[in-house]
Sequence to fold (309 residues):
Amino acid sequence: MIADLPSCPAPGAIIEIAAPEQSLAGGALTFILEPLRPLREPLIAMTGIGLDAEIEGDASTIRRYNLPQAGADHGLSVLAAGQPMGRRVVFIHGSPGLGEEWMPFLADVPQGRVHLAPDRPGFGESGTEPVTELQQQADALVPLLGSPLQAPVVLVGYSYGGPVALRLAADHPERVAGLLLIGAAADPGLEEIHPLQEVAAVEFFQALLPTELANSNAELMALRDGLEDLADDLSRVRMPVTVVQGTADTLVPPSNADFLRERLPVPPATIMVEGEGHFLPWTHGALLTAALDCLMQGAQAQLSAPPER
Fold:
């Protein structure tokens, strides 16, 4: 286990990580953007500037395939790596985003696993039409859960991908063994629509935006309703959950972690990264890998346990 996570957190435990492993978009870029600190994370989210992660392992083993989508004019594009019959881990990106953002986790897959990273509908190679409802986004990923006869999967959800993972787990609890939620939106009361989002949704201005930004704005404007529906169903999420959250996150307020601790029937293990923002997959890859390994161990132990009488 890495020094930042000396032992696997128990359910309900809160671990505080004192210092970031590295600074996102450091040096000159950080200095230039410092006066715009309240806008820095939104700018990085929209432009991708500074989101570069070192890839260790063999990226040449990563393959892409497409799953047909019933009633859709475009398939679901998925990146896959590891052993095809291994234990499934599904990585769900945020908004906007791509499956390629999980490349460091695809290039180095532990023995006995297969890692899957889809482009969510409306992004990358999974079509250009917006799919704005949280329920629809989750339904599109159901084929990645495998058949009911296979071992249940572990879901990794980042940002908007967090509530997608929670929706999947609430709808299919018997097919999900655990959740790793990273900077995940959850509390509908914290979702606010900025006036600029409403302007961007006007057809004229929407047409001026890149497709993925326009689709992102559309699904984020509908997120509050999706989270309200999800809140009523969180009681069905009884599998192990680990929440990783930056305390200086300006895109997903840290109190979302408190909401999950209050609403989930089994209190999640919570890892709070002091002074860190929203982009933990890029700044704290090693920490997330360790948290995922812990979750996989717990899921395996749960799978091996004798049935309750």
Observations:
- The first helix runs from residue 28 to 33.
- Strands lie at 14-17, 63-67, 76-82, 87-92, 113-118, 153-158, 176-182, 241-246, 269-273.
